Amino acid sequence: MKKLKIAIQKSGRLSEKSIALLQECDIKLTQGKRKLISVSDDFPIEILFLRDDDIPQYVADGVADIGIVGENEVLEKDKETEIIKRLGFARCRLSLAIPQSEEYTGISWFKNKKIATSYPHILTKYLNEKNIGSEIEEISGSVEIAPSIGLADSIFDIVSSGSTLVSNALKEVEVICNSEAVIISASSLTDEKKQILDKLIFRIETVERSRGNKYILLNAPNNKIDQIIELLPGMKSPTIMPLYDKGWSSIHSVVNEKDYWNIVDRLKELGAEGILVIPIEKVIF
Ligand code: ATP
Ligand code: MG
């Protein structure tokens, strides 16, 4: 059986979470080696560890079938690949920033200015759309220091919290696009590989659904069951079992971490007792 080849970042901001996601899908790292293997024979997968810049090209060329990469790299490299799933981590944005001492007058500020960036393709496209003529200085790293060393007037770079900008006396003036980790795929995969990919996506969606969900069990007076169930709708509908003690029932359901404490407070007010909350490993529909 042919293996589905997945490209992930070798080391950097995406690698840990990419590995963790695959591990949650039961694709494990073999003892300490930077080698991932799938644990089931019917789920043949091979991982390629690459620099993130190279992932779109490798996927477009078919060296890898799919890749986990930042959307910013996908947009910059503009290769023949398709985004098949957004993963919600490594969120950041690509923004224009200028020295704090400058007064920002709108996008026309950038006319005839020099902008340092590692994302010349995205920037050129944006400036053309806005009809602004600027000079682009392409550099591969430490873009944020370009204005202070006199290399450029401004920068176009990745921003997340904005603290790097502040510590370089810069201010963000335009957000051009947002980015998160995504899975990209070559536009044509064989049916065999598509099947493996479908299984992988199913596993990822199962992992996402399970995240933050807890199994909850509690004892409640029978006359409060209706109100309690409104708080705990459960997957389909909660399980209710009578206790030996007449007038009381045991209720089993699922709650999410997000509203967990509010729900527990309400449950106590309604007379619930013996509340147990248990982790859920996988939720499969
Ligand atoms: P490589 O050596 O693989 O080329 P790199 O130095 O280009 O790595 P990283 O800094 O590891 O890249 O960032 C990888 C990706 O993580 C970026 O392309 C972007 O999508 C995302 N990213 C970068 N900086 C941040 C940040 N501060 N917060 C969140 N996500 C970020
Ligand atoms: Mg890179």
Characterization of the model:
With 285 residues, this protein is α/β, with parallel strands linked by helices. Helices cover 27% and strands 34% of the residues. It folds into 3 domains: 4-89 and 180-209, D-Maltodextrin-Binding Protein, domain 2; 92-179, 3-Layer(aba) Sandwich (D-Maltodextrin-Binding Protein, domain 2), CATH 3.40.190.10; 212-279, Alpha-Beta Plaits. The protein is built from 8 helices and 16 strands. Strands 4-1-5-12-6 form a 5-stranded mixed β-sheet. Strands 9-8-10-7-11 form a 5-stranded mixed β-sheet. It binds adenosine-5'-triphosphate (ATP) and magnesium ion (MG).
Q: Strand count, sense and closure of the main sheet?
A: 5 strands, mixed
State the CATH architecture of the largest domain: 3-Layer(aba) Sandwich
**CATH class category of the largest domain:** Alpha Beta
Please tell me how large the radius of gyration is.
25 Å
